[in-house]
Amino acid sequence: QVQLVESGGGLVQAGGSLRLSCAPSGRTFSSSFMGWFRQAPGKERECVAAIKWIGTSTYYADSVKGRFTISRDNTVNTLYLQMNSLRPEDTAVYYCAASAFSGGYIPSRAYAYDDWGQGTQVTVSS
């Protein structure tokens, strides 16, 4: 099992920026896709961004397009989420996830992801 460790969450004012990082450890990392999900109290977990580990394909939820950027550094097996122009509605626990999905598209549903981090809190104040 791959262990994923997130970092970079915190408290920021509306309009500010944060960068989340996710580093896998454990068995040799061989996932096909990685994604960032978030879950606010009383809401379902949603995918905000995902990326194919090899290649350039990315997915963004409409709510974060133009504000968030997902990227990865294959040399150090680290996933990033740059979050700009943050809004109070972005407040949630953010999770990193890895998927071995073999389909021809980037999965955005939580059930397609096999390994999860423990989550990091992002709070945006108004």
Kindly list the characteristics that best describe this protein.
126 residues, seven-stranded mixed beta sheet, mainly beta
Average of the residue pLDDT scores = 92
Largest sheet: 7 strands, mixed
**Radius of gyration based on Cα positions:** 14 Å
The number of distinct β-strands equals: 11
Structural class: mainly beta
Helix content: under 10%
Molecular shape? globular
Task: Please give the count of helices.
Answer: 0
Q: Which ranges are low-confidence, i.e. pLDDT below 50, for 5 or more consecutive residues?
A: none
Question: What letter string, H or E per element, gives the SSE order?
Answer: EEEEEEEEEEE
Fraction of residues in β-strands: over 45%
Question: How far is the N terminus from the C terminus?
Answer: 39 Å
Give your account of this protein's structure.
- The termini are far apart.
- Strands 2, 4, 5, 6, 9, 10 and 11 form a 7-stranded mixed β-sheet that branches. The protein has a 4-stranded antiparallel β-sheet with strand order 1-3-8-7, with no helix packed on it.
- Strand 5 and strand 6 form a beta hairpin.
- It is mainly beta and 126 residues long.
- It has no helices and 11 strands.
What's the gist of this structure?
The protein is an all-beta fold and 126 residues long. The protein has strands at residues 2-7, 10-13, 18-26, 33-39, 46-52, 58-60, 68-73, 78-83, 92-99, 115-116, 120-125. The strands form two sheets. Strands 2, 4, 5, 6, 9, 10 and 11 form a seven-stranded mixed sheet that branches. Strands 1-3-8-7 form a four-stranded antiparallel sheet, with no helix packed on it.
